[in-house]
Amino acid sequence: MKIPAPRAIIVSRAARLVVGLCLSWAGALSAETPQEGSKELFAWSLLPDLPEALGVAGACAGISGDALVVAGGAHFPVPLFEGGAKVWTDAVYVMERGAQDSYTWQRGGTLDRPLGYAASATWGDEVICVGGGDAQEHYEDVFALRWNGERLESRVLPSLPQPAAFLAGALVDNTLYVAGGLHVPGDSVATRGFWGLDLSADAAQWDVLEPWPGPARADPVAGALDGAFYLFSGVESSPDGSGGVSLRFLRDAYRFVPGSGWEQLADLPHAVAAAPSPAAALGPSHLAVFGGNDGSDVPRVQELRDRHPGFRRDALAYHTITDTWASLDSLPAAHVTTTLVRWGDDLIVPSGEIRPGTRSPEVYRAAPLAPKARFGFVNFLVLAVYFVVLIGIGFYFADREESDEDYFLARGRIPWWAAGISIFGTQLSAITFMAIPATAFATDWVYFLGQATIVALAPLVVFVYLPFFRRLRVTTAYEYLEKRFNVAVRLFGSLSFIVVQLGRMGIVIYLPAIALSAATGVSIYWAIVLMGLLSTFYTTMGGIEAVIWSDVVQVIVLLGGALLSLGVIAFSVDGGLSGLIATASAHDKLHLFNWTWDHTTTSVWVVVVGWTLSNLIPYTADQAVVQRYLTTKDEAEAARSIWTNAALTIPAGLIFYGLGTALFVFYRENPAGLEPALQTDAIFPLFIVQQLPAGLSGLLIAGIFAAAMSSLDSSLNSVATAIVTDFYRRFTPGTTQEGRLRLARQLTVALGVLATALGLIMATFEIRSLFDLFLEFVGLFGGSLAGLFALGIFTRRAHGTGALIGAVTGAVVIYVVKVFTAVHFFLYAGIGIVTCFTVGYLASLVLPSAQPDLDGLTIHGPGPRREATT
Question: What is the pLDDT of residue 818?
Answer without folding.
Answer: 83
